[in-house]
Amino acid sequence: MTSFEEVETEETITCLHMTFYHPCQEEKMMFRCLNFCRREQVRADEMAKFGRDSNVCHYNLMDSRVSRIQFSLQFYRKLNSSELGFEIKNMSKKTKLIVDHTELGYLNKIDLPWRCIICFGDYQILAEIQEGESLDYFQTRLHLAEVPVLQERCLPSLQPIPESSISYSLFPSQDKSPTETDENES
Fold this sequence. Notes:
Elements: H1 3-6, E1 15-21, H2 25-28, E2 39-43, E3 47-51, E4 59-60, E5 71-77, E6 84-90, E7 97-99, E8 102-104, E9 109-111, E10 115-120, E11 123-130, E12 137-144, H3 149-152
Parallel strand pairs: 1-12, 3-4
Antiparallel strand pairs: 1-11, 2-12, 3-5, 5-6, 6-9, 7-8, 7-10, 10-11
């Protein structure tokens, strides 16, 4: 047997991609302590904590309006399943945490959807889970957004689009209502 044949089988690693946005980032530099565009490994039995207290939180937000521990993420394996996921918990007594459209009060927690937006105060974080197999650890990869992540996310149009893709409301001078024609007519 060659040394290649004896090597452990490679496992894929779950990676949590997080894209951060705050409207005052350029002036206040509240993300200056975060390591962007570099994967960081976190042990599965550790809680990933985000907040202002550098003694407790691995992910520090340099803003006096952020709680000492704002929120935490716990990596886990779902019961009777091989599926892995994250649980997000609001650790702030003063600020509600919004995960997509679900509002979390102090110590409330939910499963983190595979793609969602986390909001508190003026902070917006797009979280996306890239699935893996490893049970020993996961990775985080942080990104910095230049525009609000809520703007980047495509929201469905509330107005129906006509089949002809011409909206008659764009042409208010026309008092004619649309008429139905046979597709064979010219």
